[in-house]
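Researcher: I'd like a candidate sequence for this fold, 219 residues long. If you have to choose between options at a position, lean toward the conservative one.
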């Protein structure tokens, strides 16, 4: 780029920055609450650059749409809900980031995984690494994708403190069931992968041994 072109480009950038600075300082509006004084707005507004690209309205709700609507409804109904709660065991392991978490008495009580209306019906947390990882926190995990189900979710959350979670029966009858053994083998396999991700080598080894034992029963 020649010196003249560089100089012209620098001038254009400077003019844009000046306009943005003016917008930033002058955007404060007179409000009745401020007694007629100009209210300082702490945000930045950047002028649009010339472009031929167009953004069109999506023809269906996205996962972010559902998450935003659900968060707003839960907050309105008095639930202590947080978005994007993260948990990591170390810098080496990425850990988890939950879409929504309900807290009671400063402790997590329910994890909510949000999907789009298209993806939700196709998701099964019983058969995914993510699902086993989330459930390993010892909390109920809700898979949610349709705001029409909000009333049912609200009822569940209101009763979640006393709700008893039934455990699968482990006995001779269950062990003789090939389908049960298949599901158990799959669950142990996913759990061992979760332990690996979290850097829990001893737990990973223990789960792998149990998985291989179940595999032997399947033969």
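Model: Candidate sequence:
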């Amino acid at each position: 780029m020649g010196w003249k072109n560089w100089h012209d480009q620098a001038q254009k950038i400077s003019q844009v920055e000046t306009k943005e600075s003016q917008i930033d300082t002058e955007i404060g509006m007179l409000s009745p609450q401020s007694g007629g004084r100009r209210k300082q707005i702490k945000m930045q507004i950047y002028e649009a650059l010339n472009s031929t690209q167009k953004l069109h309205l999506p023809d269906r709700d996205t996962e972010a749409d559902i998450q935003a609507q659900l968060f707003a409804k839960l907050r309105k109904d008095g639930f202590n809900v947080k978005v994007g709660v993260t948990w990591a065991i170390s810098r080496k392991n990425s850990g988890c980031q939950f879409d929504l978490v309900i807290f009671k008495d400063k402790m997590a009580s329910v994890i909510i995984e949000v999907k789009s209306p298209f993806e939700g019906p196709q998701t099964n947390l019983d058969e995914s690494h993510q699902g086993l990882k989330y459930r390993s926190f010892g909390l109920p995990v809700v898979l949610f994708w349709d705001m029409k189900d909000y009333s049912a979710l609200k009822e569940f959350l209101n009763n979640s403190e006393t709700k008893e979670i039934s455990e699968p029966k482990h006995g001779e009858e269950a062990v003789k069931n090939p389908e049960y053994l298949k599901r158990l083998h799959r669950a142990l396999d996913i759990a061992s992968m979760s332990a690996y991700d979290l850097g829990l080598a001893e737990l990973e080894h223990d789960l792998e041994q149990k998985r291989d034992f179940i595999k032997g029963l399947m033969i």
